[in-house]
Structure formats: C-alpha cells, structure tokens
Write a structure and sequence with these properties.
196 residues; mainly alpha; 5 helices; 2 strands; 3% strand; DNA-binding; GcrA cell cycle regulator; GcrA
Length: 196
DNA sequence: CCCTGATTCGC
DNA sequence: GCGAATCAGG
C-alpha cells in the first residue's frame, strides 16, 4: 500500500479529528500505526493543534541513550494555508477535545433515575458523579460501532432516540470504560441475599 | 498487558 | 519517502 492522495487525506482528516494512529491505521488498512505516525510527522502535522488546543511544547532533551543528535531544525511554524473549511455537519459525533457542547440537556430524566443495569443499590456517589460526567464526553456510539475496546455501557432508553453506548476507551480487559467499570463492578458489599 | 505518540535509521 | 524497531510514557 502506498500513500495515495485519498489515503493521505483520510489520514489528515482522522488525525485532525483526534483519532489515534492505530485507529487510523486500521481504517486505512495495509499500514501499521507506525506507518501512520511516520507519515504524520513527514507531513509536518504532528502537532494536533486544533482549535484552542494549548500547544505546550515541553522541552525534552537528553532522551537518547545511544546517540545525542541535536536536531537543530529551526522550524518556526507552519501556518498551513489550508483553505479547507471543516464541515461541522454532524454535531452528534463531535469530538471531545475542542468543542464541548455547552449546555447539555440532562440525560437522565428525573423520573427514571436508574440508568441501565441492575440494582446498584448504593454505589459511591462519587462513582455515579463520575459516570454522569463521563457521559457528557461519551462517544455515543451505536451498537454497530462498538469494538472490543469501546465501552459498552448503554445510556438512555433503547426505545428512544436518546440511546447510545458510552464508547470511550475501555479499561484494559473490562468491557467498560474507567468510569463505568466503577459502577458496573461493585465491591459486592451490599449484596446481601434476601432470604426468600 | 493494553495502549499512546516520538524518534531513529536502514532501506 | 517509508516504516519497523525502538523509545518513553499512561
């Protein structure tokens, strides 16, 4: 596979969207994430400086255990005369980093406080708070978009438009992201069996 | 162990 | 230019 125009464009697009190199590699196919990263660098867009992203470049030096190669390459800045407006067509799949959708309507209606799963009688309020916070950042994936590494925590009512899966990166091994693991796997404290 | 991007360097 | 190997970190 070679870097055709289209492939490069897709690469640029996805990189701009904040996709990881490995994800891009998967999408493109025929390349590894290393290839993607290498290309990204060659294209000179290693900085994912999108909108308002703080480009704090910490000076990290002396990290070459083998050879010190002071790469004195005076590269001031590349304005990149890109006359290509990004189409914000789909607000639903908005990225998380730069455009927080301001006032998000409360996802969980008061009448139906209990989200998905089961009887999480008493989960630490902090965990719950974490969840509701995370849900704002959720990728909001559909069933088909889930992968082995996306949080499969369902949010909302399946019978409604307001239903999606978290989709954030899972905590290694687990089926859920960090926050949802917190409420999914309880310390099994109050798991008292009521005698029936 | 899973992942991330960054860098080097032989090709 | 390309990207595997490696590095450095989460």
């Amino acid at each position: 596979m070679s870097w055709t125009d289209e492939r490069v464009e897709l690469l640029k697009k996805m990189w701009a969207e904040g996709q990881s190199a490995s994800q891009i590699a998967k999408e493109l196919g025929g390349v590894t994430r290393n290839a993607v990263i290498g290309k990204v660098h060659r294209l000179g867009l290693s900085n994912r400086t999108g909108a308002g992203a703080p480009a704090a470049a910490p000076a990290k030096e002396a990290k070459a255990p083998k050879e010190v190669k002071p790469k004195a390459a005076p590269k001031p800045a590349e304005p990149e005369p890109e006359a290509k407006p990004r189409e914000p067509a789909v607000p639903a799949a908005a990225e998380t980093r730069s455009a927080p959708p301001a006032t998000r309507k409360q996802i969980i209606p008061a009448g139906q406080p209990l989200p998905p799963q089961p009887s999480a009688n008493e989960i630490s309020p902090e965990a719950l708070a974490k969840v509701s916070e995370v849900e704002k950042k959720a990728k909001k994936l559909t069933l088909m978009e889930l992968t082995e590494r996306t949080c499969k925590w369902p949010v909302g009512d399946p019978a409604t438009e307001d239903f999606w899966f978290c989709g954030l990166p899972v905590q290694q091994g687990k089926p859920y992201c960090d926050a949802h693991v917190g409420v999914a796997f309880q310390p099994m404290s109050s798991r008292r069996d009521r005698r029936r």
